[in-house]
User: Fold this.
Amino acid sequence: MAATQTAPTIGTQSKVEGTSFAVLMIDLDIPTDSPPETSTLLHWLQTGLTQSTAATPIDTSEGSTDAFVFENSQGQAAFAEYIGPSPPARIPLSHRYTQILVDTSSATEANLDVLKNAAANRRGFDALSILTQAGLADKVLAGNFFNVTNPGPVASSTSKKNSTTGNGSGSAGSTGTGSVISPTQTPFVPGAAMTHKVSGMLLGIAMVGAVFIAL
Assistant:
């Protein structure tokens, strides 16, 4: 889990068009008081990213690869500061963390204000609805996901800590990755990030290139 506690380095195999980008990271498996029903939590929303002009080697869960890295070169404050994964000892013990890369090159101040205002309420974050409201649902370029699992056991019903920010009982551990490692032309369906179905659906997020995480 330690490898996921700081904001990751992200990049794509090939350079994408655009001059400004945003990244969102969402936990799709927040426990509720009515299991197996789950909710969501926004872990990160950073705008103002630019992409490097040359590929550089980065270490990923799939090994070292050359990638065009996204950087916050202007030091822009995040709409939602990065929160590292820490699933509580509640069902489900394994959480999927989805990252979405969005082209904000043509976004207006009003478009970005929608993201900023939505980021103020991290719980129940609905990526499809918010990106649609911001006029950015068709600007998604790529995506990635990874799993982090609390080894358990599940806490008693009288102890319902529900934080994924380090307050849950038990210690979480990274158990693998679902990172997309090759480009795919599968059309992006924003709702796929919110369906809470099998992890394979998240592969449909990548449309232009693969997002890599340096863990």
Observations:
- The chain has one domain: 2-214.
